[in-house]
Design a protein that fits this description.
Number of helices: 6
Strand content: 5-15%
Distance between the termini: 42 Å
InterPro entries: ABATE, ABATE_dom_sf, Znf_CGNR
Order of helices and strands: HEEHHHEEHEEH
Strand order of the largest sheet: 1-2
Mean pLDDT: 90
Radius of gyration: 18 Å
Protein name: CGNR zinc finger domain-containing protein
Length: about 180
Amino acid sequence: MTERFRAGAGRLCLDFIRTLRYRGTPSELEELPDAAAWGAWIDQLGPFSTPVHPASADDARAVREAVHELLTTSARPSTRRRLNQFAALPVPAPSLTPSGELRWQASDPASAMLSLLARDALDLVTSPEFARVRRCAGPECGALFLDTSRPGTRRWCSMEICGNQAKKSTYRAKAGAS
């Protein structure tokens, strides 16, 4: 099954801000245009075992932009306040089913997911890992990712996509110059 949303950036909050794909380019694409898309993102990347049906995606997009600002610039006081407010919301609670499976529950799963995302962003920006947040070198990408490579020199958010495209471009340029 092909996943609808990209994952693998190294932190949940980094995967979340990638829902504005190709940020800042002419190809920019909003992946959370409505509540159904936000619910699909939660279903794919969140902890809940049953589908989530949020009423709106407005708060999700607002939190996403606040997280992006926090990670890429000197966040304004209003941005910090917004993230602190969402981080203070209740988070999902674990429970053990009679069959021994772990399930996550929340009275409002969409708000609980926003709380998890805000908390993850606040944790990241105050951790040593923050020094390893990189912007993808792909000219059309620009996604942020956590560089977990030993030397800390990873250039692309995904070797399979952006890295492969860069290598193909380099090869074509060399082949054309010959």
